Structure formats: C-alpha cells, structure tokens
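Here is an idea for our session: we take a single protein and study its fold together. To get us started, please write out a protein record for me. Once you have written the record down, we can walk along the chain together.
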Amino acid sequence: MSDGQDEKLIALRDLILDKAEAEADLIVRKAQEEADSKLREELSRIDQETELILSEARSRTEEVRRRQIIAAEREVAREKLRLQNRLLSEAKRMLLDELISFRERDDYQLILVGLLLEAEEALPGGGPLKFRLSGADAFMGSEVAKGASRLRPQVVVRFDPDPAPIVGGLWLATEDGRRQVSADWQTKVNELADVLASRIMPLL
C-alpha cells in the first residue's frame, strides 16, 4: 500500500473517530440532560409530597389541638356545673337549717301565723280550710289558728292535729283536701333555689 493510500486511510480513520467522539459526546450530553431533568422532576415530586405530608400533619395537629381544647372546655364546664350544684346544695342546706332554727325564736308562733295568712291568700274563696304542722310544732296549732282568725276573721280555718311530714312551716288545704298549699321550710328553700343560684353563679 502506497504512502498516499495510507494517509487517506489515516484521515478516514481520524474522521470516523472524530465523528464517533462527537456522537458519543452528544449521547452523553443528552443522557446527562435527561438524567438532570428526571432528577429535577423527582425532586419536585418529592417536594410536593413532602409539602402535602407536612400540610396533612399540620391539619391533623390542628384538629387534635382543637379537639383537646373542646374537650378541656367541656370538662371545665362540667366541673363548673358540679361545683355550682355542690354550692347550691350546700346553700340550700344552710338556708333550711336557718329556717328550722326559727323554732328557737320567741316569735316563732307569729311566724307560723304569718305563713298561714300567706298560704290563705293562695287559696281564695274563703271556704273552710285546715292546716297541719310538723310533729315538733303541733302543740302550737290551736294558738296559731286563733292568731290567724283574729287577724282574718272572715276566713274559716281549723288546725288538723295529724302531723305533716315536714321539718317546719305548715301545709294548708281546703276542707275537702282537693287543693293544697305547701308553706313548709323545704318548699320555701326550693322556691328560693333560683335566687340562690343567681347569687352563686357570679362567684364561679
């Protein structure tokens, strides 16, 4: 083979090698670009998923926090109600004890007369009435009846010696027993329950 042919072959070889190298570089660049693109896409997807997870976590945390607050507020309300009921019960007991202690006063008989006159107003008609006292107060029944008759002679009222199951005060009823007014201490305490509650609430 002549020198001229050798040179042509070398030149052809170099041309082929250069072209192959250029194509290899192009393939490498495209592969790198595709890899970079896929990496960016994957990183973007990961960022989106991470943000979604964080968002869900924040949402769940806020929901848990909201439920805990609601539960705490509900427990506070329940405890406040329990305390209110306990204080109200104690206040009613103290008031009842105070009313029962009226029996020790010198004017207790007059108090019973006043209760009887008040109860009579709740049973209008002036028809014959009868009242009962507690067993502890029964000995005053006749005098209470006389006192009420002196102050309101137009109302016919008599003392029923059958003791009422009360701690103090009295029960008044029509002679036939169809209508009755409870003017005993326990009833008075129950009637004042709303007033007691209204005074207790601001303390809580």
